[in-house]
Amino acid sequence: MGRILTTDDVEAATDDVEAAIRGGSVFAAGGSWAHHGRMVGTAAVNAGEPKLVSIDEAPDDAFIAGDMGLIGMHGKDGSWYLTRLKPYRTVEDKIDGVVVTFVDIGERRRAEDAMRESESRMRIMVGELQHRTRNLIGEVMALVDQTRTAGQTLDEFKASLRDRLRALARVQGLLSRAAPGEGVTFDSFLDSELSAQSENGGIVTRDGPVGIALNSTSVQALAMALHELTTNAVKYGALGQKNGRLAVRWRVQTENGAPWINVEWKEGGVETPPSAEGRREGGSGRRLIEDALPYQFGARTTFASRTGRRPLHDRASALRTSVRGDPRWTVRGFVTAASSSSRTST
Amino acid sequence: MDSSGLRDRRILVVEDEYLIAITLSDQLEGVGSIVTGPVLSVKQAMKTIESDPEIDAAILDINLGGVMAYPIADALLARNIPFVFTSGYEDDVLRTRYPQVKNCPKPYLFHEMERALAGALSG
Fold it and tell me: Residue A131: which of B26, B40, B63 has the nearest Cβ?
């Protein structure tokens, strides 16, 4: 007749084999220890209630052999037992049975598993960080090459590179601060870029839904493009003049099941047409605006500036582009606001 | 390194970062190569490999927006097109799965890439 193994049995078996036998804590198994011990242990643990069985219940052909075995057992409910097998002998020194003890090591095991898992997560994160850092340094190196243009003074190069690196840093900051599951929203993104630079005047109108998350593949390329637009607007366009007007309008639409944000950037009220000579970094800046977005996420982009291929009337530059949104986007509100970009006005 | 190894060679550039892609393409063109691409996805790269039988060699960023570029590597190997990986990873997978392919880890200087690619072409 089997009975449920208790802590006392386990202790008794461990401390005093004789006592355990006397208490009926006896188990008979045939064949080799490892094999039968494992079978016995599995059967007992899978039942969820490790049992000790009297020797009488053992099959007639069962025999006991070997020394102590120590086997880890996996229970059906994810529990873990350490199974200890200890033969006992008769006064004639004949092996007559075995004491099986089950020690619940679930807690320790779970702690070890958790530790291992957290270590492996950490390794993956460090690997990913390593990858991103190297990638980012690669991008910075590319940015150095892209910023260098013919006829540029060293000071101009330094200023331009520094500005672009700061834009890159801003977007990294936005990405790291973004709430998990939310991403960077287009409006927060636009505000960050505009407030970083606009200080010389001009009226900025923002018009579009608030809370639209950007797809992570869009963020950096869009940041660089907006940075170039803003830089140009400050130097030669609407953000550099008192009567300048910048209107940024964005709308959301779904295309083939994917969310897209259609962005329009228009500058007006620019009194003195900027001269082509004044725009030395035009080439690489133009690339960052016009080519990067289609390349990076398949945007449809048209860009025109006064010095570009298409002459404009009353506009320093105009961009129309689609930007990939995040499928999790939700509209939190709507902004239609005009503000002066001048920090000196009150 | 003598750049003649890459002159007039048709190089496929697979790279998911625009800045790096465009800079690498400029540099390759600077040493007389003809750049195919750049492209940034497995799909685009596979299409290019299938439609352009003239590709002499390729530069393959192994992580394309979180997607591993192994299918591209396999397609290049199948066509005997020499190529070089570029990866931010110190990658065991690359070493075991493609022991014969050189990795030019990011961030690299162009002359390192040039040397690696010329080595792949002559090897």
Answer: B63
